[in-house]
Amino acid sequence: MRRPFIAGNWKMHKAPVEADALAESLKRALSEMTAADIAVAPTFLAIPAVVGRLRHSNIGVASQNVAVEAQGAFTGEISAEMLKAAGVQYAIVGHSERRQLFGDTDAVVSKKVQACFRAGLSAILCVGETLPEREAGQVEDVVARQLSAGLADLSADQVSTVTIAYEPVWAIGTGKVATPTQANDVHAYIRSWLGRYPSFVARNVRIQYGGSVKGSNAAGLLSQPEIDGALVGGAALSVEDFTAIVKAAT
């Protein structure tokens, strides 16, 4: 059985003091929920406060992005090595907002996944189609292309440790959500795509769903056989909603 994994992406919300307060509230609310892996992804600026607050708890800390390079003259970037030293355990890579707003190509996403392995961070690789791509029947082609690039040059053992987050772009921050069947169908396709590796890879890789997940719809999504967790956006800023999603996963 794959262990459920719920991660909250706080995006560009919560300055350090606010982030510390939210982390403390989540720490109290989720302290007894040990049947799932849980992580939150604050802004870079708030990482030290959140890592300190969540130390010795059942909640890990993720970064929302990671630089390709380990160090050097790259103004404004934060390396995987720096994040690891700051106490971060996971890194979200290839989120659609990074792809669409900041120009992260498939090739860049691949390098960022490699950077995670170089530094010892666990990668959460995001894939997903836009609404025009879905309407054109290109979902599997788009997802396959993103998987092929994101997992390029990794060994089977490495691939087996990556978390894949399927996030249909049309459902992120829009209030729209894939139906449980729609989401599970794409998750099943991803699992079958992983069949090109030794069988333990498809058995072990956790595939999260992301896209307007909240407490009221989490149970329907997370009850699907191929959905192993959720990458949560706006609802991750609500203790009540995020707690309900973790409960639904367990």
In short:
The protein has 250 residues and is an alpha/beta fold. It has helices spanning 16-30, 47-54, 80-85, 96-102, 106-119, 131-135, 139-150, 156-159, 180-193, 199-204, 218-222, 239-249, and strands at residues 5-9, 37-41, 59-63, 90-93, 122-127, 163-166, 207-209, 229-232. Helices cover 43% and strands 14% of the residues.
Characterise this structure.
- The chain is of the alpha/beta class.
- The protein has one domain: TIM Barrel.
- The protein has helices at residues 16-30, 47-54, 80-85, 96-102, 106-119, 131-135, 139-150, 156-159, 180-193, 199-204, 218-222, 239-249, and strands at 5-9, 37-41, 59-63, 90-93, 122-127, 163-166, 207-209, 229-232.
- It has an eight-stranded parallel beta barrel, surrounded by six helices.
Note the main attributes of this structure.
alpha/beta, TIM Barrel, eight-stranded parallel beta barrel, 12 helices, single chain
